[in-house]
Amino acid sequence: MANEFERIQRVVVVGGGPGGYEAALAGAQLGAEVTLVERGGVGGAAVMTDVVPSKSLIATAEAASAIGGAGDLGVQFFGRTPEGRPLRVETAVNLAAVNKRLLGLARQQSEDMRTALVRAGVRIVNGQGRLDGDRRVVVSTGRGGTDFDELEADTIVVAVGARPRRLDSAQPDGERILTWTQLYDLQAIPEHLIVVGSGVTGAEFASAYRALGAKVTLISSRDQVLPGEDADAAEVIERVFTRNGMTVLNRSRAESVVRTEDGVVATLTDGRTVEGSHCLMAVGSIPNTEDLGLAEAGVQLTESGHIRVNRVARTSVPNIYAAGDCTTSMPLASIASMQGRTAMMHAMGDAVHPIELRNVAANIFTQPEIATVGWTQRQIEDGIAQGEIYKIALASNPRAKMIGIKDGFVKLFARTGSGTVIGGVIVAPKASELIFPLALAVEHRLNVDQVASAFTVYPSLSGSIVDAARAMHIVS
Questions:
Q1: 263, 193 in Cβ contact below 8 A?
Q2: Numbered residues of the known binding site for NAD(+)
Q3: What InterPro entries does the database record attribute to this sequence (predicted)?
Q4: Which residues span the domain enclosing 268?
């Protein structure tokens, strides 16, 4: 008779976002019998209402900005009257068409992910999953919670994501007061969009809608936008925002947002009011961990409801893992995916490299973008890490001059003495692509001379990375 370790391992994954998807796929590849429980579409909120549609919207905003800035490069757009006289052409954004396209992209991505799972042999159950102890998941599959499916499991992975936080004093109605999941129902560019919250989500959407032509007021409770990011990078973004016509209200807190007959009114704690046509509430998110039976199964949660996990995504219960925004880790799709894979490899006894959050590259999709990796300047200045700092403005880069880039920089952090690259910040168009060489350097502990010895194309924006590394040369 086969013992427990010889039979096929049964894995149940609750939630089909990036973490759940990767866990299910890795489990199937490692020979487990995998069932994925998902109540929406495969890909979860990241694909259906968050990352995929929002970054698609931002891509449209970037295209609109490129057209608007083409005149600086000598490109002019004209039509002709019937008499042959030149007529200046106006650009316009059809938001209904934009939203239809990006939601279509989201559905297609979800279907592609579902196809990949089915091809790998993963069973997909549509419904709401709940843990019944540490070895069983009960799935509500019928309307009204009348039909149930009980799934036995050797390993459970919880990847249920998070949802927008709502304030009692500013309840979204899906029409005028909106969360970021509701923006895609808009049929026209808001005349005046008030954005409450200047974190990553608020800054990205404020940037995008200003580029699309909306009047935008950004309400920030802190001294500047993006309070958790590199101070120099946040300063650049705020400067660009205001130069492009956005109103930024720093050190201001929204007490309430109410709907009026034809718009909204945001009342600040100091008594000021801001009137607009629409309001986006971007005040954080909360994990979807309530009513899942986690505490009853022995899984430790924080006061905020996030699942405590270690570096291999394991919870306080040995055979239960968790991945993504519902955990205490950083809320990034890339981390969720890595957690899912790591959890499954650990559970199946495969070789695993514990996640090192300090090596994670992250990006904010404003215009310009902000990309970061490794230790921060604040940590160096506070003495948490020992390092040297070098910053070079993109305005001095020949490629940047050619394509009209006026804002941005490359900042490099290297350990004092050895010159090992321990972090960096890039503010530039497509910084999300430019950060990869620094991510490699941090991951593989390259020093600045090794980075500087690599050839870059001339002219290229990446040349500024090498310039910064050369400036930090280790004198032997």
A1: no
A2: 197-204, 284
A3: FAD/NAD-bd_sf, FAD/NAD-binding_dom, FAD/NAD-linked_Rdtase_dimer_sf, Pyr_nuc-diS_OxRdtase, Pyr_nucl-diS_OxRdtase_dimer
A4: 177-283
